[in-house]
Design goal:
The complex is a heterodimer of chains A (703) and B (120). With 703 residues, chain A is α+β, with helices and mostly antiparallel strands. Chain A is 62% helix and 12% strand. In chain A, a hairpin with a 7-residue loop joins strand 4 and strand 5. The longest helix of chain A is centred in the last third of the chain and has 66 residues. Chain A is elongated and about 140 Å long. In chain A, 29% of the residues are buried. Chain B is α/β, with parallel strands linked by helices and 120 residues long. Chain B is 46% helix and 20% strand. Chain B is built from five helices and five strands. A five-stranded parallel β-sheet of chain B has the order 2-1-3-4-5, sandwiched between helices. In chain B, helix 2 runs parallel beside helix 3. The termini of chain B are close together. The chains are: A alpha+beta (703), B alpha/beta (120). Chains A and B meet through helix 15 of A and helix 1 and helix 5 of B.
Chain lengths: 703, 120
C-alpha cells in the first residue's frame, strides 16, 4: 500500500459516486449522459492505477498499465464531445476523428503495449512506473501530443471563449467547469511530466480525486449543467453538526485517555467533567457558526429573492392581459424561486360567491373552493396581511386550520385591490424545509401587490373583451337579420302568392303554359334567394371561427380583403362604394390565420369608416411588396385623422376617443394582439384633418 | 272605384312581388324604392293606403310618416318590417300607423288587414 494506491482509490470512489449521481439526476439529457461516461472512463483508469500500483510483479503491473491507459485514452474524446454538446456547437467530424484516433491507439496500446508504454521500473514508493530513461517511446509522445496537446487545448479554447461571452449564473457554471476539469486533468499531466523527470504523479492523482468535490459544489451552488438539487437544510445541518462535534469531542476523549493513564479512575470523573464542560461551552458557538456558514454558502440563493421578485414584477406589468396566463406564470416563477412544495392561486368568482382555484402546482385538491363568508376570507380582507397557518390558532377556526394543514398550505397571501380581496395565493412549505423568514414575507408582500394589480387588470380586460364580443355579435346579428330576412321574405311572398292565387281561383283563366312559366319564375327567384342565404351563413361561420388556436395557412390577401368587404356590406357597416382596393403586385400570399387576418381587416376598415365624412369619405386598401420582400397591406382613409397623443395610445387597451358607450377601446388592442400572434407588424401614420393609414407588414418570401 | 296602394321598400325583388300580388286583387299599386319618390307620389296621387318599412335608406321612418301624413291626411298606413322591436312598433302605432305586419309576410293576414282598412 502506498499513497498512489490511496489516491487512485479515492478518485475511483468519488468519480463513481459523481457518475452515478449525475446519471440519476440528469437521466434524459444527452450532455449529462456523456458526462457520466467521462466519470466512468476515469473510474476505469483509476482502477487500472490501483492495479498497477499494487501489482507484485512487473508483468502484472504492465497489464494493469495497459488497462489504465484504456480508461485514460477514452476520457479526452468524450470530454471534447461533451463540450461540443454542452455549448451546442457543431464539430461532428472532429468528434468522429477523435474517437477513431483514440480507438486506433487503444488497439495499439493493447496489442503492441511494449512499443506504446515501453518498459517499467520500480519507483521509490515500491511500485512500477514507466521507465522513461531506457525507452522514450515515440508512439506515446505522438499520442499525448495530439490528444492532450491539441484536442484538449482546443476544448479549452472553446470553453474559455464561451465563458468570456457568458453572463450571470452561466458564467459561474463555466468558471467552475473550467477550474474543476483543469484540476482533474492534472492527473494525466502528472504522468506526462514524469517523462521529463518531474515526479509529482502521486500529488496530481490526489487532485484528480478532489475534482468531483468541486463539481458537486458547483452543482449545488450554481446548478452546473442546470441540475437543480434541492437540499434539505435540516439534513445538511445535522450532518455538519455531527461531523463538527465529533472533531471537537475527539480531543477530549484523547485527553481523557491521557488523564486516566496517569491518574487512574478518579481522574476519569474529573476528565468527564472537563469534557462535558468543553462540549457545553462549544455547543452554542458551534451551532451558530454552522448556521452562518451553511446559510452563506449553501442557501445563499435566498438572498437573491428580492432581485428575482423585482424582475418578475416588471415582467408582470408587460404580460399579456389574461388572468390564467398571469396566474400560471406566477406559479411557475414561485416554483423556481421560493420552491414551495405546492402553490395555488384562488380568484373570486362573483357568480358563485366563492374563491375558485385558477392555477396551481402540486396542489392536492384541485376542486377546492372557499366561500366568501368564511372566517379566513373575512380575516384576510380585514387585515390584508400574509397569514402563516402554523401560527394561526387565534385567527382561524380549528377545523379551517386543520383543512389547510391537510392541503399542505403553509402561507396564505391575500391579493387586494382597494381593500377588496380579489383572490389569494397559497404556498406550501419550502422544499428545503426552511421556514418562511421575515425577508420572504416582505418580498412576497411586494409580489402580491403587483400580482393583484395585474390580475385585476386582466379581469377587467376579460370583461371588456366580452363586451366587445357582444357588440360584434350585435353587429353580426343585425347584418344576419337584414341579409337573411330579405331573401327569406321574397321566398315567402313568391310561394304564398302562388298558393293564395290558386286557392282564390285566380289562376283558372291561365293556360297550362302560362302556369308552367309562372312556376318556373317563382322557383328561380326562390332558389336564388336560398343561394343568397347560404352564401351569408357560410361567410358568417368563416368569420366566427374560434380564435383560440391559430391555423396558419397560405392566405390570398386579395381574397381576404374581398371576403371582409362582403361581410362589411352584409353587416351594413359601411357603404361598400367608399372602399377602393388596389393590388400593386401579382397574387400575394401571406402565412397567417385566415379568420384573424379578416378580423383585423374588418376592424381596421370599420374604424376607418367611422372616421370618414359621409359625402367625400374614401377608404383605400392597398397591397404592395416593399424592397426587402415584405408584404404591406395599407388601409388608408381621408377622415379626420388624429393627434400625435392619440396616435401614441391607439393600441392601448381601453383607450378610446369615441363617446362613452360607443366604443370599448379594445378594437385596435385586439388587432395588435392578433397581428403579433400572426408574426406580423402594424404601423400607424396619421395627420389631423388629412386622414389615417394603418399598415400591416407581413414577412415575405415564405411561400 | 279601384283603391290605390303605395309600397315603399328598398328591396326591389320583394317590392315587385308584393305589388304583383296586390294587383291580382284589383288594387292600383305604385311601388317606390326611396322616401323621396314615395312622398312625391303621395302628394300627387293621394293613395288610400301606404305600406312601408321604417328602416329606410334615405330618411328615417318617423320623419317619413310625419311628412306623408301632412301631405295626405286621409291615407292609412301599414308598417311592414323585419325588426320586431315592441318599443318602436308602439311608437309608430301612436303616430298613426293602423297595422303592423312582420316580415316574412303572411300574405293572407296582410290581405285581410288591407281589406279591413279599405272597407272592401
Amino acid at each position: 500500500m502506498n499513497f498512489y494506491t490511496l489516491s487512485s482509490l479515492l478518485a475511483s470512489v468519488t468519480l463513481l459516486a459523481m457518475g452515478i449521481f449525475m446519471f440519476i439526476m440528469g437521466k434524459p439529457r444527452l450532455e449529462i449522459r456523456i458526462w457520466t461516461y467521462i466519470c466512468f472512463g476515469v473510474v476505469f483508469w483509476q482502477i487500472g492505477s490501483f492495479g498497477f500500483s499494487t501489482a507484485t510483479s512487473k508483468e502484472m503491473s504492465f497489464y494493469w498499465w495497459q488497462f489504465a491507459h484504456i480508461g485514460a485514452m477514452l476520457v479526452p474524446p468524450i470530454f471534447f464531445h461533451f463540450i461540443c454538446i454542452y455549448l451546442k456547437i457543431n464539430r461532428k467530424l472532429l468528434i468522429i476523428f477523435a474517437y477513431v484516433f483514440t480507438a486506433v491507439f487503444i488497439v495499439i496500446n493493447f496489442c503492441f503495449g511494449r512499443y506504446f508504454i515501453g518498459d517499467l521500473r520500480i519507483t521509490p514508493d515500491h511500485f512500477y512506473w514507466i521507465d522513461w530513461f531506457h525507452y522514450r517511446n515515440p508512439l506515446f509522445i505522438a499520442y499525448y501530443a495530439i490528444i492532450y496537446g491539441l484536442l484538449l487545448g482546443y476544448s479549452y479554447i472553446i470553453l474559455i471563449n464561451a465563458f468570456r461571452q457568458s453572463i450571470g449564473i452561466r458564467r459561474k457554471q463555466f468558471q467552475y467547469l473550467i477550474i474543476g476539469t483543469a484540476v482533474a486533468w492534472s492527473g494525466p499531466m502528472g504522468i506526462i511530466i514524469s517523462y521529463f523527470g518531474i515526479n509529482l504523479y502521486t500529488y496530481t492523482n490526489i487532485l484528480m480525486g478532489t475534482f468531483p468535490i468541486i463539481m458537486g459544489y458547483a452543482i449545488v451552488r450554481h446548478q452546473l449543467m442546470d441540475i437543480e438539487l434541492i437540499i434539505k437544510k435540516t439534513l445538511v445541518f445535522a450532518g455538519l453538526f455531527a461531523a463538527a462535534l465529533a472533531i471537537f469531542v475527539l480531543p477530549t476523549l484523547i485527553i481523557q485517555e491521557f488523564v486516566i493513564s496517569h491518574m487512574g479512575l478518579g481522574g476519569r470523573v474529573a476528565s468527564l467533567g472537563i469534557s462535558s464542560l468543553l462540549i457545553i461551552l462549544i455547543l452554542e458557538p458551534l451551532k451558530n457558526f454552522l448556521i452562518r456558514i451553511t446559510d452563506k454558502y449553501l442557501f445563499q440563493k435566498k438572498y437573491d429573492y428580492r432581485h428575482l421578485i423585482r424582475e418578475f414584477m416588471d415582467e408582470l406589468k408587460t404580460m399579456i392581459l389574461n388572468t390564467n396566463d398571469i396566474a400560471q406564470s406566477t406559479v411557475d416563477f414561485l416554483n423556481t424561486s421560493i420552491r414551495p412544495t405546492s402553490s395555488a392561486i384562488f380568484m373570486y368568482n362573483k357568480f358563485t360567491s366563492q374563491y375558485d382555484l385558477i392555477s396551481s402546482s402540486d396542489f392536492k385538491d384541485k376542486s377546492f373552493k372557499i366561500p366568501d363568508n368564511s372566517k379566513l376570507i373575512k380575516m384576510l380582507g380585514e387585515t390584508g396581511a400574509i397569514l402563516n397557518i402554523t401560527n394561526s390558532d387565534k385567527l382561524l377556526l380549528p377545523q379551517e386550520k386543520d383543512q389547510f394543514s391537510k392541503l399542505g398550505i403553509d402561507l396564505i397571501i391575500p391579493l387586494l385591490i382597494h381593500k377588496e380581496l380579489i383572490g389569494f395565493l397559497c404556498l406550501g412549505k419550502k422544499k428545503s424545509d426552511e421556514d418562511y423568514g421575515e425577508d420572504d414575507i416582505e418580498a412576497l408582500s411586494g409580489l402580491s401587490g403587483a400580482l393583484s394589480i395585474s390580475l385585476n387588470n386582466a379581469q377587467l380586460f376579460d370583461e371588456r373583451a366580452d363586451a366587445e364580443k357582444r357588440a360584434l355579435v350585435g353587429t353580426i346579428a343585425t347584418g344576419i337579420n337584414h341579409e337573411i330576412g330579405n331573401p327569406l321574405n321574397i321566398i315567402t311572398i313568391k310561394l304564398d302568392t302562388f298558393r293564395i292565387l290558386a286557392k282564390e281561383g285566380l289562376l283558372a283563366h291561365k293556360t297550362k303554359e302560362e302556369i308552367i312559366d309562372e312556376v318556373d319564375k317563382i322557383t328561380k327567384v326562390c332558389l336564388d334567394s336560398a343561394q343568397r342565404i347560404a352564401e351569408i351563413t357560410k361567410q358568417v361561420s368563416e368569420f366566427a371561427k374560434p380564435d383560440k388556436k391559430l391555423i396558419f395557412d397560405k392566405v390570398n390577401i386579395s381574397e381576404a380583403i374581398d371576403e371582409t368587404m362582403a361581410f362589411l356590406k352584409h353587416g351594413m357597416i359601411i357603404d361598400i362604394e367608399k372602399i377602393e382596393k388596389i393590388i400593386m403586385c401579382e397574387p400575394v400570399y401571406v402565412l397567417a390565420d385566415r379568420g384573424q387576418l379578416k378580423q383585423v381587416l374588418f376592424n381596421l376598415i370599420k374604424n376607418a369608416s367611422h372616421a370618414i365624412d359621409k359625402e367625400k369619405g374614401k377608404i383605400i386598401v392597398t397591397v404592395d411588396k416593399n424592397n426587402s420582400g415584405e408584404i404591406a397591406i395599407k388601409i388608408a382613409d381621408n377622415g379626420h385623422g388624429m393627434t400625435k397623443e392619440v396616435m401614441d395610445k391607439v393600441f392601448t387597451p381601453f383607450f378610446t376617443t369615441k363617446e362613452p358607450g360607443k366604443g370599448t377601446g379594445l378594437g385596435l388592442a385586439l388587432v395588435k394582439i392578433m397581428i403579433d400572434r400572426n408574426n406580423a407588424r402594424i404601423k400607424v401614420e396619421s395627420e389631423e384633418e388629412e386622414g389615417t393609414t394603418f399598415t400591416l407588414i407581413f414577412k415575405g418570401g415564405l411561400l | 272605384m279601384t283603391k290605390k296602394i303605395l309600397i315603399l321598400d328598398d328591396e326591389g325583388e320583394y317590392l315587385v312581388s308584393l305589388g304583383n300580388f296586390l294587383q291580382e286583387f284589383k288594387f292600383a299599386v305604385c311601388i317606390t324604392m326611396t322616401t323621396a319618390q314615395a312622398l312625391d307620389a303621395i302628394k300627387k296621387d293621394k293613395p288610400d293606403l301606404v305600406l312601408f318599412d321604417y328602416k329606410l335608406p334615405d330618411m328615417d321612418g318617423d320623419y317619413f310618416l310625419k311628412k306623408a301624413r301632412e301631405l295626405s291626411p286621409s291615407t292609412s298606413y301599414i308598417l311592414i318590417t323585419a325588426w320586431n322591436d315592441p318599443v318602436v312598433l308602439e311608437r309608430f302605432k301612436k303616430m298613426g300607423v293602423t297595422d303592423v305586419v312582420l316580415k316574412p309576410i303572411d300574405l293572407e293576414a296582410l290581405l285581410k288587414s288591407i281589406k279591413a282598412i279599405l272597407k272592401e
